[in-house]
């Protein structure tokens, strides 16, 4: 069977209105108890400042557009944002990421919200870039998952692509992913796969296997993609060989507790993707500061 005419991975497009809603929620957390009383008390009305966003460590910038979007909701007067290092730029300690000229009270009110988002997204891009560097030259790609923080999925997936990775599915309806619990409920990997193919023949379908025996059961059906869960590198290599012999059009994804120190070992097997859930659920923030 020829796989559906669907790309191997989707692409995320940032919706400014969705970003604005997220920012409004974040600002409400700061301002629901009243205005920024500290800035009102210490900064004269009408006072203006020039500020810089500066990197404190090496990493990759992502989400710089949030600076402007946050200030749009906070600013009581004109402001200007100069993006010095575009998204995807690798920076080092002391590098200026952006310059801002705005009302001082506005800057101080916006500071934490814009830094929370920018440091988080840049942290994801930085972590992704490290994984991409680790598998360079192997042909394998680094891919994310749905292990995202509520409300942040599209921004987090955008940050992954900014760091050089690729996205897995965006939700439950854009493509099928048959996991172990689906397999148990359906009575086996083959019944589960055939059920999805029958009901949603035009949807890209990936199915998880735990053993090489399950892989052998599925390959004659020429599935779009198979997830190799908790396989050792030698098992992944065997899976690649069997895939190449029986169903060369089937993509293979290695998943399950992968760590950066073994990324190259897995990538050299010939697998198509390494699934790295930690990119979005636990990447450390990139240390960025707002300096007057």
Number of domains: 2
Q: Which term fits the overall shape?
A: elongated
Radius of gyration computed on alpha carbons: 23 Å
Number of strands: 12
Query: Major sheet: order of its strands?
Result: 6-11-10-9-8-7
Helicity, in percent? Answer: 40-55%
What is the residue-averaged pLDDT?
A: 95
CATH superfamily of the largest domain: Aldolase class I
- For the record, the CATH architecture of the largest domain stands as Alpha-Beta Barrel
Runs in which pLDDT lies below 50 for 5 or more consecutive residues are 1-6
H-E string: HHEEHEEEHEHEHHEHEHEHEHE
Q: What fold name stands as the CATH topology of the largest domain?
A: TIM Barrel
Gap from first CA to last CA: 61 Å
Report the top-level CATH class of the largest domain: Alpha Beta
Biggest sheet overview = 6 strands, parallel
Count of helix runs: 11
Summarize the structure.
Involved in the catabolism of quinolinic acid (QA). The protein is α/β, with parallel strands linked by helices and about 290 residues long.
List keywords for this structure.
single chain; 292 residues; alpha/beta; Aldehyde Oxidoreductase, domain 3; TIM Barrel; 2 domains; 6-stranded parallel β-sheet; 4-stranded antiparallel β-sheet; elongated; glycosyltransferase
